[in-house]
Amino acid sequence: MKIVLKITSIILIIGAAGAAAWFSYFVFLGTPKPTEKSVESPTPDSGAAAAISKVKLIAEESVLSMWINSKNNLLYYVAKDGKIMRTRGMGKAETASNQTLPGFHAIIPSRDGSKAIASFYYPQATIFSVFNAENASWERLPDGTVAADFSPSGEEIAYLRGGQDPSLNIVNLKTKKNRKVMALRYSGEGTLYWQTADAVNLISSPAADLPTEWWVINISQRTIARKEGVGSASMITLARENGLGLLFQKIGFYENKLNLIANGGVLAPLGFKTAPPKCGFSGTMLYCAVPKGIPPRVDFLNDYLKEKIHTEDVIVSYNTETLAELDLLREEKLAIDAEQLVVWGENLIFKNRYDERIYGIKIKN
């Protein structure tokens, strides 16, 4: 059998294969780890004035999680080896605690950041323990704790115990006294948000094939009610101080949308697509890392949470009062896949998933 190949066909085939390999490498396997400490940022394509001009390296080592202590204005983070470090953001860090956190899972800071709940030894025998940044002390929550959050004042902690007798409990950090609020018919993982003095929100963890459930527990009345009007949400996150939140919905298998919510109702659909962990609230401002493009035919939220894919992001700000959106960073020289966005003074800092280090950009509040 004769095979006739034209030279132009060969060129087209090679070119297509090369483009496909390039796309697969950069989208699914990630770009090489960035090394620049300060990179000029080009003007956003949208024409809006950029609020920043440089990306700065804040922490040089790999980081798992971070929070801001507003009392001493220091950045605290959990390093890759499980140690808690603190820094003023100029590349130098010091150990904040001799305790290490093997099997680290999450950090939940108090409103002022002077304390933080750490969960570790996850998932085999998860421990929840409270870190006090003022004296570097630790206080373990009762065995069987599966979720916890600080009260708005920071003086108490609500914690959910699982097992055969699930219940919501509260411990006073000064008196060390525990009290049981109520028994619950709840199993599985979830997140607690103690937003107001008398109400604790319980939101189930994202699951590939199950909608997220949102329950509101009234402490004084000892009642629990399902939050209505959230539809078939795949993930819900709440800001702990102002009642705002984000609701991620899947439309079919591959399409999705992100909504801004207030007190459980949809306030406004957002004009960009991203995952809730790539956003952070600061007062009335919402900051998000928005992928420049989402690969077709991927289950974006689940694949992102499982780190099956990486993205290259544009960072935007969104005013929840005026609903005005502004590009803050459209970086071309440094690959950025940002999560854990936090405002620290005049800077917006974030963890870059490509190299797991903390970067910052100066913003105009």
Structural class: mainly beta
End-to-end Cα distance, whole Å, is 71 Å
- Low-confidence parts, pLDDT < 50 over ≥5 residues? 1-53
Helix coverage percent of residues? under 10%
The overall average pLDDT, rounded, is 84
Radius of gyration: 22 Å
**Tally of DSSP helical segments:** 2
**Number of E-type strands:** 29
Beta fraction of the residues? over 45%
Strand order of the largest sheet: 1-2-29-28-27
Shape: globular
Query: What kind of sheet is the major sheet?
Result: 5 strands, antiparallel
Structure explained in plain terms:
There is one protein chain. With 365 residues, the protein is mainly beta. Helix content is 8%, strand content 47%. The strands form seven sheets. Strands 1-2-29-28-27 form a five-stranded antiparallel sheet, with no helix packed on it. The longest helix is centred in the N-terminal third of the chain and has 23 residues, at 7-29. The model is unreliable at 1-53 (pLDDT under 50).
Can you describe this structure in just a few lines?
With 365 residues, the protein is mainly β.
In terms of topology, how is this protein built?
Layout: H1 7-29, E1 38-40, E2 54-59, E3 63-69, E4 74-79, E5 83-87, E6 93-100, E7 106-109, E8 115-120, E9 127-132, E10 137-140, E11 145-150, E12 156-161, E13 167-172, E14 178-183, E15 190-196, E16 199-204, E17 214-218, E18 223-226, E19 233-238, E20 244-251, E21 255-262, E22 265-269, E23 279-282, E24 285-291, H2 300-305, E25 313-319, E26 325-329, E27 338-344, E28 347-352, E29 357-362
